[in-house]
Amino acid sequence: MSKRVLIIPLAWLCVFLLVCPVMAANEADEDLEGFFTLLGEDGEEIFWTGLQLGVGDQVITADNKRYQVTAVNGYQAETRFVEEVHLMSEPEEAALAVAENQAAVYPVTLLDRPVGVYCTHSDESYVPTEGGASVRAGGGILHVAESFARGLKRAGVEAIFDNTLHAPHDTAAYDRSRRTAENLMQRQLGALFDIHRDTGPEEKYEAEVGGRKVAQVAIVIGRENPAMEANLEFARRLKAVADRLYPGLVRGILIARGRYNQDLTPRAVLLEVGTHNIDRASAERGAMLLAEAVPETLKSISGSAEADRGSWSAVGWIVLLSVLGLGGYLLLSTGGIKEAGAKLRRMFGREMASFFGPLEWTQKRFRRSREESPRRPDRDDED
Amino acid sequence: MTVGTVLLVILAIAIYFGLTERVLDRMRLSDRAALAFVAAMLLGGLIDIPIAARPVEVSINVGGGLVPLVLVGYLLYSADTGAERIRAIVAAVVAAGAVYGLAKLLPAEPGRLLFDPTYLFAGAAGLVAYLFGRSRRAAFIAGLLSIILADVIQLTELIMGGIPGRTDIGGAGIFDSVILSGVLAVAFAEILGETRERLQGGHKPRSASQESTHRSERGDGDE
């Protein structure tokens, strides 16, 4: 056995063992100072977020205008106006209004299912209430998520709140919370909500609804989810219903880089309830009010052509990319188009013959391909 | 239908039609055994086995943790040489260190990263596993084992730091980075290995004695 085979990996292992404690000391914490302002084409402020923005990110503002980020300079993002957004088509709006009185207008299968609630960043807290922005043993965000779940129950929806802690607040938090989300998904959910809070000044995130101060809510959709369009459709409907019930509660929809476990279901969204500088009671009120919009959203999305189209187009893309990937691999491993074709003919001939029985055409093709390119002896033995 | 489910169905179809036969051959797995493992991962993803409740809640998912561990055990047992076993385990430890280090060094928000954390960790683990494992079998073992080891490191961190939390090994079942990193490690081994061979002008014939020595050093018949 060559010594080099062991020495090189062992040397690397030693380097990693030495570097790891340094890495642990530099643990990535939440950036509480970084606060992005999105500017419209005339330089007016249109949106605020503590999330890192990049070129290509989009936002649907409170007044339903869609902008795309074209440049990011420090903590300011320049945007271009894309379009006026109609959150729901007029017939759907009309049908939903009727459905409020006649539940049978829409199939309500999704409404019969429970709704899952969890917190990826379970340490997030509200400074005025908790005294700090992060509490590893469970931050104020868990209370806000619980209020959201309570609001859902009050609105007649079965809610399952999973208060699993995903500390520390590092890059792997979403990987850990994915396991919580997947456990919740096993309950055949109607929708899945990941509750967070943003970072930024209090005045940018508060509103007055029904004479009381509440924290505004932003809906975040991940661009790296292949089925993003379906999730965005759900977010748009949620905002449409919330706008009708409590105007000013939802401050917009941010479409940002990331996946946020939203690939698990087309009805998964991330909610940013207020900011770390707002008091928790306001955030809890905001979450409870938004929960009231969920049943109608689920009613409207049941059997929606737009939502289905989003999901199926994602499946189509995945299949297409997989076929291209497998095709590329086949070309690479066989050495050319002719050889790859011969291998494919041989595979389909053999498997179809065993699956459908001894069809003449498959047998002929199989024999011909064997003559063209003899199979490896070890595989022949298995048949 | 989620991305994981679609990919798993495509993988099962690829296995069924023999597209992965060479990879499976080199891992000493038959098509049927591979399909059985895929089915066990799919069904086992629904079952969590609790291991400990205090001081940190620990559980293992059958599909995302236990079945991959059984597969790792089988592949280690069927490895050709002791050197290959050691190489696979060392590669797994190094890849686990890389995953843990990335989690600490990189920003917490996915918006600041080039890739989603799940793909990033699985990709990093897969790449390191391939670079240190060298063979497809060792890369696959290291890919699967590294994420599980990274979970164990995180569990240790929680216990040592007195942080309440939960470690659910392979808890996302087929959607977990455990399986993804194993598959990516083999994909890296296959694609990078093949590309390197093509760039070098294809497979160079060796004498019988050279071939025998080479195979025993590498621990499998990758060429």
Structure characterization notes:
The complex is a heterodimer of chains A (383) and B (223). By secondary structure, chain A is an alpha/beta fold. Chain A has 3 domains: 36-81, no CATH class; 98-314, Zn-dependent exopeptidases (Aminopeptidase), CATH 3.40.630.40; 335-382. Helix content of chain A is 45%, strand content 20%. Chain A has helices at residues 3-25, 90-99, 127-130, 141-154, 173-185, 228-245, 280-291, 294-301, 305-334, 337-356, 360-372, 377-382; strands at residues 36-39, 45-49, 58-61, 65-73, 76-84, 115-118, 159-162, 191-198, 206-209, 212-215, 217-222, 250-256, 268-275. In chain A, the strands form 2 sheets. An 11-stranded mixed beta sheet of chain A has the order 2-1-5-4-3-12-11-13-8-6-7, with helices on both faces. A two-stranded antiparallel sheet of chain A has the order 9-10. In chain A, helix 10 (337-356) runs antiparallel to helix 11 (360-372). The model of chain A is unreliable at 20-28, 102-106 and 375-383 (pLDDT under 50). Chain B has one domain (3-218). Helices cover 68% and strands 6% of the residues of chain B. Chain B has a 3-stranded mixed beta sheet with strand order 1-2-3. In chain B, a hairpin with a 4-residue loop joins strand 1 (48-52) and strand 2 (57-61). In chain B, helix 5 (82-105) packs antiparallel against helix 6 (117-133).
Give me the side-by-side strand order of the main sheet of chain A: 2-1-5-4-3-12-11-13-8-6-7
Any idea of the CATH class of the largest domain in chain A? Alpha Beta
**Quick one: CATH superfamily of the largest domain in chain A?**
Zn-dependent exopeptidases
Strand order in the sheet with the most strands of chain B: 1-2-3
Strand content of chain A: 15-25%
Largest sheet of chain B: 3 strands, mixed
End-to-end Cα distance of chain B: 38 Å
Radius of gyration of chain A: 26 Å
Order of helices and strands of chain A: HEEEEEHEHHEHEEEEHEEHHHHHH
The fraction of residues assigned to DSSP E strands of chain B is: 5-15%
Low-confidence stretches of chain A: 20-28, 102-106, 375-383
Please state the average pLDDT score of chain B: 78
Order of helical and strand elements of chain B: HHHEEHHHHEHH
The CATH topology of the largest domain in chain A is given as: Aminopeptidase
Q: How would you classify the helix and strand content of chain A by structural class? A: alpha/beta
